[in-house]
């Protein structure tokens, strides 16, 4: 919310346009989000004994990075639509809460009710692709002591979609982040054009106020005029 207020002030001063703001904000936030993905990711990845290998950790950190980009982009959209700071946090948390409930983790995909939760929420929630990417990164290609196959666990236990690789899930997340940024740009441009129209429509013309005052003065009685 603070970011949107800074943008409005700088935009009114004529320092930069909407497109420059969106591109500049995305590029300036990228290094910080990358650091907060790799450093905490290294702390939580190795102690539990997840799969060894730089490729698995690199994928894990990139998936965290894509999710952080998505959450930031989603909150930027909410901030552009909800001017109140507290209501913006509540709205953003509510949207993410719905996506988490329909993302296929708390209830498996086949157990989700078809109306709304399975179609369309399950397919538009970025948690679906994040969960499946994490599962595939850990279980795909593994063999366990009881002769269980990792691919079979993914297919039966987690009901993951095995028709494509984990990298497709990662690319989908980055694609959604770009789409959210583009949607944020469109919303700001539309809001910037419609805001003067809405303000002009809601404002009361001065002539109406003058006519009402004149009509009130004309209906005043002589006794009221003397008291005045």
From TrEMBL:
Protein name per its UniProtKB record: ABC transporter G family member 11-like
Organism: Melia azedarach (Chinaberry tree)
Superkingdom as given in the UniProt entry: Eukaryota
């Amino acid at each position: 919310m603070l970011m949107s207020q800074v943008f409005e002030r700088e935009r009114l001063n004529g320092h930069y346009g909407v497109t420059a703001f969106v591109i500049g904000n995305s590029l300036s936030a990228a290094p910080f989000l990358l650091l907060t993905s790799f450093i905490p990711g290294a702390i939580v990845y190795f102690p539990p004994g997840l799969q060894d290998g730089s490729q698995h950790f690199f994928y894990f950190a990139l998936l965290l990075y894509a999710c952080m980009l998505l959450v930031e982009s989603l909150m930027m959209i909410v901030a552009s639509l909800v001017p109140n700071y507290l209501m913006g946090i509540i709205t953003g948390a509510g949207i993410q809460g719905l996506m988490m409930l329909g993302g296929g983790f708390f209830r498996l995909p086949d157990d989700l009710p078809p109306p709304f939760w399975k179609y369309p929420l399950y397919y538009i929630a970025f948690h679906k692709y994040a969960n499946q990417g994490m599962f595939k990164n850990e279980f795909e290609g593994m063999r366990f002591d009881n002769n269980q196959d990792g691919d079979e666990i993914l297919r039966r236990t987690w009901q993951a979609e095995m028709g494509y690789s984990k990298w497709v899930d990662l690319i989908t997340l980055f694609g959604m982040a770009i789409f959210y940024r583009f949607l944020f740009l469109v919303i700001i441009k539309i809001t910037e054009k419609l805001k003067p129209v809405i303000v002009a429509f809601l404002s009361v013309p001065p002539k109406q106020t003058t006519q009402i005052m004149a009509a009130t003065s004309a209906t005043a009685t002589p006794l009221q005029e003397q008291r005045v």
